[in-house]
């Protein structure tokens, strides 16, 4: 990013509210001294920046000041097109009409030369999104409920059975070409992740009465992932096992590199062990559970059951 683009970006950030020198330095990966010089340059250019001293001090803009609409650079246009094209690869996506509208607006305001360059970049770079065949008819309801912190009465088909649950959606995300919904389950009294295409029915409902172990004011799980009181899972990985697990969106960042592979360490509720077993079985000899003992016992039992099937 050249200096003029950075100065413009600083003004745009300040339009959203006050910022400290440290925040700006981290955001643009520059030194505080460079931030001071940039602020001084903006003031010399006539931008009305207010400086506040003290522990909570920083920079802000005078009220009612804003920049005129700015033209996107080639790189900015490419990033938007790349993001939109990646989302479009998903079998079902929210805001489809808005996506097409945004593409049309970009084409209208972008200079022809920039459009050609961005199109050329799109042919040389892409984000891999596996293409799946499924539908997510309740995506809009889940997004609306997460935004409003509302409760839903749902029927859900897991890999083992179909169940009815009362959920409060928290976050929707995409991984491996599928949409997932992280939600708090009233019946399970914990956060769980649900695949959106496996919802059979979704209906609004009133907030359920708190269970004996729940606080009426707070329905968050008592022990979130990573809580120090949860048992630590420790798994030794071969070099190949570490390479495979690095791709995992949930556990990849928990690998500690080692000369002969890696060590996977994290904390999670024991209720997640059945899901973890499938991952460990798929790794075969490239993963060895060191702790906890409960997970080792479950893995041994699962491996023996498979072996007996072929005895």
From TrEMBL:
> What SUPFAM superfamilies does the database record attribute to this sequence?
Winged helix' DNA-binding domain (SSF46785)
Residue ranges of every copy of the WYL domain listed in the record = 140-202
Q: Which PROSITE patterns match?
A: WYL
Protein's organism? Dictyobacter aurantiacus
Q: Which stretches make up the Helix-turn-helix type domain?
A: 6-59
UniProt domain WCX: residue ranges: 232-306
What name goes with this protein? Transcriptional regulator
